[in-house]
Specification:
The complex is a heterodimer of chains A (about 110) and B (about 110).
Chain A lengths: L2 E5 L2 E5 L4 E8 L3 E9 L5 E6 L6 E3 L2 E6 L4 E6 L8 E9 L4 E3 L3 E6 L1
Chain B lengths: L4 E3 L2 E4 L5 E6 L6 E7 L5 E8 L2 E4 L8 E4 L6 E5 L8 E8 L7 E2 L3 E5 L1
Parallel strand pairs in B: 2-11
Antiparallel strand pairs in B: 1-3, 3-8, 4-5, 4-9, 5-6, 7-8, 9-10, 9-11
The chains are: A mainly beta (about 110), B mainly beta (about 110).
Chain lengths: ~110, ~110
């Protein structure tokens, strides 16, 4: 059964901390892994990863994929209260089917 | 406990036809959200419904699109007179309460010929 598992389910940190969010998957015919940030309405796209070992970076956020061990991490450095959100991981296969994880709820307190 | 179910998984329509997408939320969930994912874009919010009520439809196109979540049965997203630009993946998510975590379904991929 194809599945995506995210951990931890929730996380509370202080401003300035660094956090690492995990996403592991078991999806046949893997195509890509996507990270989203969801605040109030629609998730906001963060990264799409298709190749192992290549870090994608955007400001304080970065992500990397390990296709051998079937997981990805999303790092956020120097966290701010505006980073508080649910972070979703989704994996697609070559049939363009999406498998979503349940998300990690991040709360950054001042 | 089955997750969020969507059907059909793939739907092909010709221009001008109607498309009906169904979403059965997780057991115990009374809040449903519809999203659209266009190629190479992120998910875009369309509508948020609670049983028998539309709570927020600010992301729905004003014409041809409608959604409902009846007391019994799945939520339906209806697209009338489809056009090629409607081709996308449509995702449904459900939650137990408002602002609770959302569980996503597998999506319906709509192709308009």
């Amino acid at each position: 059964e194809d599945k995506v598992v995210q951990s931890p389910l929730s996380l509370v940190v202080h401003e300035g901390d660094t956090v690492t969010l995990n996403c592991s998957y078991e999806v046949t015919n893997f195509r890509s892994l996507l990270w989203y940030k969801q605040e109030k309405k629609a998730p906001t796209f963060l990264f799409m990863l298709t190749s192992s070992g290549i870090e994608k970076k955007s400001g304080r956020l970065s992500s990397i994929l390990d296709k051998k061990e079937l997981f990805s991490i999303l790092n956020i450095t120097a966290t701010q209260t505006g980073d508080s959100a649910v972070y979703l991981c989704a994996v697609t296969n070559t049939g363009n089917q999406f498998y979503f994880g349940t998300g990690t709820s991040l709360t950054v307190i001042p | 406990n089955a997750g969020v179910m969507q059907n059909p998984r793939h739907l092909v329509r010709r221009r001008g036809q109607e498309a009906r997408l169904r979403c059965s939320p997780m057991k115990g969930h009374s809040h449903v959200y519809w999203y659209r994912q266009l190629p190479e874009e992120g998910l875009k919010f369309m509508v948020y419904l609670q049983k028998e009520n539309i709570i927020d439809e600010s992301g729905m196109p004003k014409e041809r699109f409608s959604a409902e979540f009846p007391k019994e049965g799945p939520s339906i997203l209806r697209i009338q007179q489809v056009v090629r630009g409607d081709s996308a993946a449509y995702f449904c998510a459900s939650s137990e309460r408002r602002n609770n975590e959302q569980f996503f379904g597998p999506g319906t991929r709509l192709t308009v010929l």
